[in-house]
Amino acid sequence: MTTSFRWDIFCRVVDNFGDAGVCWRLARQLVHEHGLAVTLWIDDLPSLGRIAPGLAIGHDDQAATGVRVRRWVDPLPDDASPADVVIEAFGCGIPDAYAAAMTVMPRSPVWVVLEYLSAEPWIDASHGLPSPHPRLPITRWFWFPGFTPASGGVLREEGLLDARDALRCDQTVRAGVWRSTGYTPDPEALVVSLFCYANPALPALLDQWAEGDEPVVCVAPEGIASSELDRWTGGAIPHPGAPLVRGRLTLAVAPFVDQDAFDRRLWVADLNFVRGEDSFVRAQWAGQPFVWHIYPQEGDAHLVKMDAFLNRLEDGLPEGTRVGQREFWYAWNAGDPVTAAAAWPGYRAAMPAVGVLTRAWARALARQPDLASALVTFCENRL
Ligand code: TRH
């Protein structure tokens, strides 16, 4: 589809990489698959630069893979006129003057608040609802990403699962994915990609892998879980290209790469530890067993969300496998070394069945419309 519509996406980076990651992925897809003119207004270019390495983080206005990327400063530059569609990512707010200008456009722009992803059942009834702006004569539409056809869906690029399957079949390309880490692929080893928040349970898990019977390769991105790794390695965290071997465990560190390369890591690992929102979705597309370190919230609200997701994922799973997965996810999220170590053997035993389930889950999810396409249809129907 080719249109002349202009889209602006506003993104404030709260912390880490997920806010930028989701917006960057969405922006690229809107340009590449929907022919839209997209500007990403972002207040933290260095964070985006970590996952979009070609970006010039000192430039306030630039084109990057077809997306116009502009630094979100206050006030916005004078040439910032409202687009046809305005995406307010994660309720970050739209600058007052820009919002006021939206209300006097000859054709009222469509203003969409992109919410956080959730598997909770209530989001289906809230997805796509309008809400009048509290002060301005304009409507905001609420978009709830989720896992059901009644929700806003999740991001999925065209041909994603085919690209994944093709890469998995190509041994040379597969091996190339790990080259920067210095680890030489060993078909006997369990290859774990580790992307998590600080987690006191990690050293106990590393001990278990080091002392176990099975060769394990654990690859962590640079700077991730650094205090735990620092402690576990006695201040000698490996550099990319020079893994550390202790017992049966090879611990390797990988440089930060762009999102597509990060996806490829998830595709070729046997087990993916992921976190936040975007890598959590990408692990689902990878179709390998995965363990989600959910972003912690006050009052353990995140555990309600994790439970809602597990309820959907495990539907139809045999009891033993279900318990194995659930116990390990809970132990990992509790960050408790004792319960996490105790739950690992059960999870390891459940992994083959969990893998079958995860692949089926990805196939079923891929039959639903992807978030970007659904969003384009929704907005164009309102213009
Ligand atoms: O980094 P995250 O924890 O991000 C977030 C933020 O904390 C945010 O405030 C919170 O609201 C949200 O989680 C739920 O995890 P996430 O979402 O997985 O984002 C990581 C991004 O980084 C994702 O787009 C993948 C990308 N990435 C790369 O592109 N290359 C890499 O090498 C790595 C390690 C990650």
Explain the overall architecture:
With 383 residues, this protein is an alpha/beta fold. The chain folds into 2 domains: 6-153 and 369-380; 160-366, Rossmann fold, CATH 3.40.50. 41% of the residues lie in helices and 18% in strands. The chain contains 14 helices and 14 strands. The strands form 2 sheets. An 8-stranded mixed sheet has the order 3-4-2-1-5-6-8-7, covered by helices on one side. Strands 11-12-10-9-13-14 form a 6-stranded mixed sheet. Helix 12 (319-334) packs across helix 13. The mean pLDDT is 96. 2'-deoxy-thymidine-beta-L-rhamnose binds next to helix 1, helix 9 and helix 10.
Key structural traits:
8-stranded mixed β-sheet, alpha/beta, 383 residues, Rossmann fold, 6-stranded mixed β-sheet, binds 2'-deoxy-thymidine-beta-L-rhamnose
- Classified by CATH, the class of the largest domain is Alpha Beta
Q: In terms of structural class, how would the helical and strand content be classed?
A: alpha/beta
Kindly state the percentage of residues in helix. 40-55%
Alpha-carbon Rg, integer: 22 Å
Largest sheet: 8 strands, mixed
Count of helices?
Answer: 14
Strand content: 15-25%
The CATH architecture of the largest domain can be given as 3-Layer(aba) Sandwich
Strand order of the largest sheet: 3-4-2-1-5-6-8-7
Summarize the structure.
Helix content is about 40%, strand content about 20%.
Strand and helix map with partners:
Blueprint: E1 6-11, H1 18-34, E2 37-42, H2 45-51, E3 61-64, E4 67-71, E5 85-89, H3 96-102, E6 110-114, H4 123-126, E7 130-132, E8 139-143, H5 160-169, H6 171-177, E9 190-194, H7 202-211, E10 216-221, H8 226-232, E11 244-246, E12 249-254, H9 259-268, E13 271-275, H10 278-286, E14 290-293, H11 301-313, H12 319-334, H13 337-366, H14 371-380
Parallel strand pairs: 1-2, 1-5, 2-4, 5-6, 6-8, 9-10, 9-13, 10-12, 13-14
Antiparallel strand pairs: 3-4, 7-8, 11-12
Helix pairs in contact: 1-14, 7-13, 9-10, 12-13
This protein binds 2'-deoxy-thymidine-beta-L-rhamnose (TRH).
